[in-house]
Amino acid sequence: MVLTIWLGLTLVFIVSRLMPFNPADILLSRMLALGTTMRPEEIEAMRRTIYSLFGLGEPIYIQYLKFLYHYLIGDMGPSFSYFPTRVSEIIATALPYTIFLLLLSSVVSWIIGNIVGVLAVLSKREKLGKAIEYVALAVQPIPFAVFSLAYLIFYVLILRLPIPTGGILQGKPFWYMIKDMFQRSLPPLTALIIWNWMGNFLSMKNLAVKMKNEDFIEYAKLRGAPQRAIVQYVTRNAIVPQFTYLLLGLGMMFTGNALVEYLFSYPGIGILFFTSIVNADYNLMLGITYMSIVGVAIAAFLLDLIYPLIDPRIRYPGQ
To answer: Residue 38 pLDDT > 70, yes or no?
Structure first.
């Protein structure tokens, strides 16, 4: 995990230094474009100050060491778009909204999709399972951008439900913020659940069909195992790839979902990431990318620790 984070940070540093723009020069030019009158020596002094803020103007190996140190302690420098606010403060403000939306939608759709997928294979109601499968196969090929836009039109024009707007709440009681997050997330939350559960359903159904024909399942049936036990055997062995998909997906939530957040006016990391790219916000872009690297690395590390608890085929020495 540590090696992954280090390699990710190193790659981010290399890519950031190969970018065709210099954030310090962009910030200085925008300040001068506002009509500020400054002498050449004042401009040069300001340039040095801005270079220092963005960690530029020194030998490349010094920049690299400082870059690693500051990011490992959580100091990602000032944001260009929200100057002089620190990137860590901006991310900390928007991150709870994104975590609430993506965590809730991912877990709910994962649970629904897996349960329906297993029941569609092992239940006696084959026609109902086939009907659900046909609906999922018809909807899944639609690009998510098209689906989200169609759902937004349905939500606003047909159901005539409002899309909550406004900024991020700060300084409010915890339960008040949770209530605001739920109200703000309801439109994008339902869109993500409807879309994601179908993918989980199809993959779980395919895994369950394959697992249903395994020798140990046939043996259990010949031994007279009850249907409940068969469902448990199939589910426990088929759930492992699904669990991997869920946990790695949760690790990616630190980059947010810019499309959904933009369409539904939802404040989160996705909007910040989109803004950082449009405005060439060097530090904010790198900060969100770094959070994604750490999230995926920790998720992969947790998978290694949790696998023996969910997969009966995995045993460590001494077990």
So the answer is: no
Q: Which two tokens stand for residue 161?
A: 């439900």
SS3 state at 78: strand
Q: What are phi and psi of 86, to 5 degrees?
A: -75, 145
Q: What is the pLDDT of residues 222-281, one digit of tens each?
A: 888 888 888 888 888 888 888 888 887 777 777 767 788 888 888 888 888 888 877 777
The alpha carbons of the chain give a radius of gyration, in whole angstroms, of 25
Rounded to 5, what percent of the chain is helix, strand, coil? 75, 0, 25
Highest mean pLDDT among 5-14, 70-79, 166-175 belongs to: 5-14
DSSP sequence for 4-70: HHHHHHHHHHHHHHTSSS-HHHHHHHHHHHTT----HHHHHHHHHHHHHHTT-SS-HHHHHHHHHHH
Determine the Cα angle at 23 with ends 22 and 25, to 5°: 70
Pick the CATH number of 87-310 from 3.30.390.10, 1.10.357.10, 1.10.3720.10, 2.60.40.10: 1.10.3720.10
As a whole number of angstroms, the distance between CA 79 and CA 220 comes to 61
Of the candidates 260, 282, 277, the residue with the CA atom closest to the CA atom of residue 98: 260
Distance of CA 127 to the CA centre of its chain: 35
- Cα gap 305→53, rounded to integer Å: 40
Question: Positive or negative CA dihedral for 89, 186, 171, 81?
Answer: positive
Q: Hey, how many other C-beta atoms are within 10 angstroms of the C-beta on 84?
A: 9
Domain spans, the chain: 2-72, 87-310
Instruction: Give 208's pLDDT tier (boundaries 50, 70, 90).
Output: confident
Contacts of 50 (CB under 8 A, 6+ apart): 24, 27, 28
Q: Which residue has the tokens 């230094």?
A: 17
